[in-house]
Design a protein that fits this description.
This protein is an alpha+beta fold. It has one domain. It is 56% helix and 19% strand. The chain has a two-stranded antiparallel ribbon with strand order 1-2. Strand 1 and strand 2 form a beta hairpin.
């Protein structure tokens, strides 16, 4: 397996709770575990470098994605 090959994470179980929360179980190999940890660490470092709270960023990803879409549209129309 080369270093650039994608890794796979599979949801193996979802348990919904009465309070609306859910518990997810995942299956992944060692490479996926390492890559997920690396992505998480990189995410934390980026947030820290901009002084952003991790939970705030996660809760507002939809706004960030919408902003990115709008920027892409205006760049495409300018070209």
């Amino acid at each position: 397996m080369s270093e650039n090959e994608p890794f796979q994470v599979v949801v193996t179980d979802v348990k919904e709770h009465e309070d609306g929360a859910a518990t997810y179980s995942f299956a992944m190999d060692d490479k996926a575990q390492v890559e997920i940890a690396n992505i998480g660490l990189e995410f934390m470092l980026y947030c820290a470098s901009y002084g952003l709270d991790l939970q705030y960023v996660l809760e507002n990803l939809d706004l960030i994605a919408e902003h990115h879409k709008e920027e892409s549209k205006s760049e495409d129309s300018a070209a």
